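Colleagues,

For the teaching module next term, I've prepared a clean inverse folding example: a structure given as tokens, and then the sequence designed for it. I'd like students to try predicting residues themselves before seeing the answer, so please don't circulate the second half yet.
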């Protein structure tokens, strides 16, 4: 996704969102990412820590990862449940429930404390907020609001109001607002003596802490609910706080659970055929995909401020390729109402030439890029052509599933026709292959088998849509270009004297094209885009050779390509196992082995993926080949989309459930 770097874990856990307010945590339940009013932009925490702590008997304990007993989404909703125990407070069990209201921009953090001792106790809750509003520590304000008994952080037209309720009444005990620049570490450090000094306002680079006294009876429990209310003005956050306080948090929690319980019931997935562990990760994956989609249709790859320390950029962009694959996964799972948002934004992103750019901000303005163009040794345009082609392909698959002709016809005219005309014309007169562009891994210019496969599929889809809409002239043009590209793929991108395909033709600085024979998992697009049938004598030996080259020995998994250096930390391995490439192998096996659900090879690979998500249900981009620790962005939307597609395909071909599918 980004330029090559080394090292680093960018793990975020259990994102929650309503399409405007987005929050992600770390393994200590601290808020590490908070974006509003767009999913992925602007980031107002940006990797800083918004901590939770508890004090009893005069000692403050900030929650640490080792305090966590269990932490996950609930079974049927993207509501985060955390159970923890602090060793120094052995009689107390803490349970946090985090969710965002689906209608109002409010984060709820409900706390229950169970006291298993025979004597009552008093616990003090500390909530710390460290915010760089609009991703800058300049010009922020943190202030105490005496009427609301709340803390307010604001800058420009972004406001956040924080408070904790006992029932419907504010329960704030002490507070402090302070600076955290120069030699000042912030109010969270001052709070560690268990007392807050009551400074009512601070400006610049600021943070705040407030505390809440919670009496807990013997052999009993106590509950409090903390709110973070987001809005574009002081008046709006205060009004929303007042409304939320009166309507009670329990009503929002009930609505959220009911909504998602119904949302998961889709007839498009025969989920009852899948083992429980697979279904659980399927549900988590659907939650992750939904939570990375904004109300405007943008789908971000990940929200990962830690990457700023490595490349001064993030994964918080819409890549059209990723968006197309994620939208296709959601379509296959039965969520065509969601994906319409993505497809509807495509015409406005299309260039006058008919292509989509490298990537876009969540606001839909062009994103940062590292692709040069128009100079010797570079493509004519700074694009990855597969991104345009896959959007046409995904849209036509959506039309096949939902037959929403009226809404798709306008997209056919405004997006499909100009984009497909670009695909069919942006080709070599000699070879009829697409002209050079950048590969899907964003690393090298040339003519790539993956790109050629997507252009073939995009033109095939455009032609089929033209036929359905009675547009015979462009249908003929697109079918003809598709067939020419199919023949050129066989003629120019197969390795001489071997059964495999070239990764592509690498565009060199002198303008020549050099055959690239590196084994690359992206060649799997030749089967999942149906360029060739799995039974085709051209394809089957090529895929068998490919996956034999890229599959790691124990514990297993499939690397992206041979010699991949992106985040590689072990020189003894030619790359790290990626979730995407591992599941591409599974999807090949689903098409080629009998009864794949009960194939030991298939189950081994699927169980390997499930094991990576066992702790919190999140799938990273890639993993260390020996330790299996997550590397790069986590969760990565594309990884979860591939799990959804794999489960849909597996369920479609699965026979009756087998006794080993459920634990005894």
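(Answer key — instructors only)
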């Amino acid at each position: 996704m980004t330029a090559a770097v080394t090292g680093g874990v960018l793990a975020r856990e259990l994102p929650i969102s309503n399409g405007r307010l987005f929050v992600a945590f770390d393994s200590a339940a601290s808020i590490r990412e908070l974006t509003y009013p767009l999913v992925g932009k602007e980031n107002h925490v940006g990797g800083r820590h918004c901590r939770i702590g508890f004090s009893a008997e005069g000692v403050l304990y900030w929650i640490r990862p080792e305090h966590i007993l269990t932490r996950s989404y609930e079974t049927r909703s993207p509501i985060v449940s955390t159970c923890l125990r602090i060793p120094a407070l052995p009689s107390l069990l803490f349970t946090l429930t985090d969710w965002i209201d689906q209608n109002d921009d409010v984060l709820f953090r409900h706390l229950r404390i169970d006291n298993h001792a025979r004597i009552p106790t008093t616990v003090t809750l500390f909530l710390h907020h460290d915010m760089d509003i609009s991703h800058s520590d300049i010009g922020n304000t943190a202030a105490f609001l005496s009427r609301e008994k709340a803390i307010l952080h604001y800058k420009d037209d972004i406001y956040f109001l924080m408070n904790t309720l006992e029932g419907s009444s504010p329960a704030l005990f002490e507070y402090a607002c302070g600076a955290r620049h120069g030699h000042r570490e912030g109010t969270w450090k001052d709070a560690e003596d268990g007392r807050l000094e009551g400074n009512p306002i601070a400006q610049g680079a600021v943070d705040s802490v407030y505390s809440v006294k919670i009496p807990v009876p013997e052999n009993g429990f106590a509950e409090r609910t903390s709110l973070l209310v987001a809005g574009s003005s002081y008046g709006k956050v205060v009004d929303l706080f007042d409304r939320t306080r009166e309507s009670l948090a329990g009503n929002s929690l009930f609505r959220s659970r009911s909504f998602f319980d119904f949302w998961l019931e889709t007839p498009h997935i025969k989920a009852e055929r899948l083992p429980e562990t697979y279904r659980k990760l399927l549900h988590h994956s659907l939650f992750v995909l939904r939570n990375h989609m904004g109300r405007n249709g943008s789908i971000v790859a990940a929200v990962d401020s830690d990457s700023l320390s490595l490349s001064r950029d993030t994964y918080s962009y819409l890549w059209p390729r990723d968006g197309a694959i994620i939208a296709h996964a959601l379509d296959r799972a039965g969520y065509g109402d969601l994906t319409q948002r993505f497809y509807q934004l495509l015409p406005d992103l299309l260039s006058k030439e008919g292509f989509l750019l490298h990537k876009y901000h969540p606001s839909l303005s062009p994103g940062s890029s590292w692709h040069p163009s128009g100079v010797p040794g570079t493509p004519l345009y700074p694009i990855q052509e597969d991104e345009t082609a896959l959007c046409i392909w995904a849209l036509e698959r959506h039309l096949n599933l939902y037959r929403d002709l009226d809404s798709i016809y306008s997209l056919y005219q405004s997006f499909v026709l100009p984009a497909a005309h670009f695909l069919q014309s942006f080709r070599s007169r000699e070879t009829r292959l697409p002209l050079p562009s950048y590969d899907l891994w964003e690393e090298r210019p040339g003519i790539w088998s993956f790109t050629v496969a997507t252009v073939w599929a995009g033109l095939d889809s455009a032609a089929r849509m033209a036929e359905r809409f009675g547009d015979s002239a462009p249908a003929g043009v697109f079918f003809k270009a598709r067939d020419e590209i199919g023949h050129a793929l066989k003629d120019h991108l197969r390795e001489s004297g071997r059964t495999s395909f070239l990764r592509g033709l690498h565009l060199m600085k002198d303008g020549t094209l050099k055959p690239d024979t590196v084994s690359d998992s992206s060649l799997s697009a030749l089967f999942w885009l149906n360029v060739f049938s799995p039974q085709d004598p051209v394809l089957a030996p090529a895929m068998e050779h490919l996956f034999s080259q890229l599959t790691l020995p124990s514990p297993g998994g499939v690397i992206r390509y041979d010699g991949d250096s992106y985040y590689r930390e072990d020189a003894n391995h030619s790359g790290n196992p990626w979730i995407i490439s591992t599941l591409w192998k599974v999807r090949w096996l689903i098409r080629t082995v009998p009864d794949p659900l009960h194939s030991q090879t298939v189950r081994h690979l699927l169980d390997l993926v499930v094991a990576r998500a066992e702790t919190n249900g999140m799938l990273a981009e890639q993993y260390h080949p020996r330790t299996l620790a997550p590397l790069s962005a986590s969760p990565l939307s594309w990884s979860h989309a591939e799990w959804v597609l794999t489960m849909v395909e597996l369920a479609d071909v699965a026979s009756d459930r087998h006794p080993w599918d459920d634990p005894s």
